[in-house]
Amino acid sequence: MINKENFELLHRYLAASDKPAAADIIFLFGGITMPEVWHKALELYQAGFSKKIYIAGGLGKKSKADKIETPEAETIKTFLLARGVPSEAIITETESTNTLENILYAKKELQPAKKVIAVSKSFHMRRVLATFTKHYPQLNVLCCSPELIYENLDDQKKEYYFDRMLGEVNRLSEYAKKGDIAAQEIPRGVVALTADV
């Protein structure tokens, strides 16, 4: 059942969040459903937290479903260039189609790095952090995302994001079993919500 209490219980668990600090790279996960994420990366760059933005993303499920042919990373790069980010500050990766690939395909940039600011949707952040932890345990990863506030959403968006968050919880269990991410402890209250669906 979608209500404020259940929505925020899920969101609190999934939305890892840190105060930004100087980092080697701003690692921006591709995606076309929430441009607020692009704005967050831009804000962090303009505030001087890093001199480099790495954009990961080819054609994800949503892009393919909408018959979009331009890789997500290229679309986001165009957005950043139009807002004054110089091309030499942007690295794009256009082959990955999911979070695991986003991170694995960035080996050249991530191996020498010590600190990364990860930017994605708030409810994606626990899985982002679990994936980084599994494959780059030496990295200090700061999670930064735009806010997702229940009161600001219409009923359709509440349902959409609630379903997305339930999917995220299921992926945490599934991907940990596959060895793709570090295992996560999922609170009983959160598990109970997934069982109700």
Walk me through what this model shows:
With 197 residues, this protein is α/β, with parallel strands linked by helices. It has a single domain, classed as HUPs (Rossmann fold), CATH 3.40.50. The chain is 46% helix and 12% strand. The protein has nine helices and five strands, in the order αβαβααβααβαβαα. The protein has helices spanning 4-14, 36-46, 61-65, 72-82, 99-104, 107-110, 125-135, 155-178, 188-195, and strands at 25-29, 53-56, 90-93, 115-119, 140-144. Strands 3-2-1-4-5 form a five-stranded parallel β-sheet, sandwiched between helices. α1 (4-14) packs parallel to α8 and α8 packs across α9 (188-195). The N and C termini lie close together (8 Å). The model has no long low-confidence stretch (mean pLDDT 93).
Which geometry do the CA atoms define?
Answer: globular
Rounded to the nearest angstrom, the distance between the terminal CA atoms is 8 Å
Spans of at least 5 consecutive residues whose pLDDT stays below 50 are none
User: At the fourth CATH level, what is the homologous superfamily?
Assistant: HUPs
Trace the largest sheet across and list its strands. 3-2-1-4-5
Counted by DSSP, the helix tally is: 9
In CATH, the architecture is 3-Layer(aba) Sandwich
| Secondary-structure element pattern, one letter each | HEHEHHEHHEHEHH
Number of domains: 1
Beta strands, count = 5
Question: Which CATH first-tier class would you pick?
Answer: Alpha Beta
What proportion of the residues is helical, as a percent range?
40-55%
Summed over residues and divided by their number, the pLDDT gives a mean of 93
Oligomeric state of the chains in view: single chain
The radius of gyration over CA amounts to 16 Å
Estimate the strand proportion: 5-15%
